[in-house]
Design goal:
Blueprint: H1 3-23, H2 29-36, H3 40-47, H4 55-65, H5 69-73, H6 83-103, H7 111-123
C-alpha cells in the first residue's frame, strides 16, 4: 500500500473511531459505508488500499464528515474546491483572524489560538484532529 493509500485508510479508520466514540459502541464497515453514502465493498477496498476514491468521492466524504484534511492526502489544491465550500472556508478563516486580533493572539500555535480556531470551525460544522508530531 502506498503512503497516500495508507494515509487515506488511516483517515477512514479515524472516522470510524469517531463514530464509535460518539455512539459508545462499535460500528461495522457496512454501517460506516451507509453513513458515508458508499457501499461496504467500496469502503473495504479503500481501507485495504486496492482502490482509491475519485475526486468526487473525496469531496463528498469531506462534506459528510466535516473533515477536509482528506483533500491534502490526494494533493488537491484549495482552488480545486467547489466555490460554495471555498467561500465557507474563507468565511471561517476570516472569523479566526478577527478573533485572534480581538483577543491579541500572536502565537498561532498556542493553546488559546487552537481553542479559538476549534470553536469557530465547530460552528461551521467541521470536524478536525490535531496531530502532534
Amino acid at each position: 500500500m502506498d503512503s497516500q493509500a495508507a494515509k487515506f485508510s488511516a483517515w477512514l479508520n479515524k472516522i470510524k473511531d469517531d463514530y464509535e466514540r460518539v455512539e459508545g459502541r462499535p460500528i461495522t464497515i457496512t454501517e460506516l459505508g451507509r453513513r458515508l453514502g458508499v457501499k461496504q465493498t467500496t469502503i473495504s477496498t479503500w481501507i485495504n488500499g486496492t482502490r482509491q476514491p475519485s475526486y468526487q468521492n473525496v469531496l463528498e466524504l469531506a462534506e459528510k464528515t466535516g473533515d477536509y484534511s482528506i483533500l491534502g492526502y490526494f494533493g488537491y489544491a484549495l482552488d480545486s474546491i467547489p466555490p460554495g465550500l471555498r467561500s465557507s472556508i474563507d468565511a471561517a478563516a476570516a472569523e479566526i483572524v478577527k478573533a485572534y486580533k480581538d483577543r491579541g493572539v500572536t502565537d498561532f500555535e498556542s493553546p488559546l489560538a487552537l481553542s479559538i480556531a476549534i470553536e469557530i470551525l465547530s460552528r461551521f460544522g467541521w470536524n478536525f484532529s490535531i496531530n502532534s508530531g
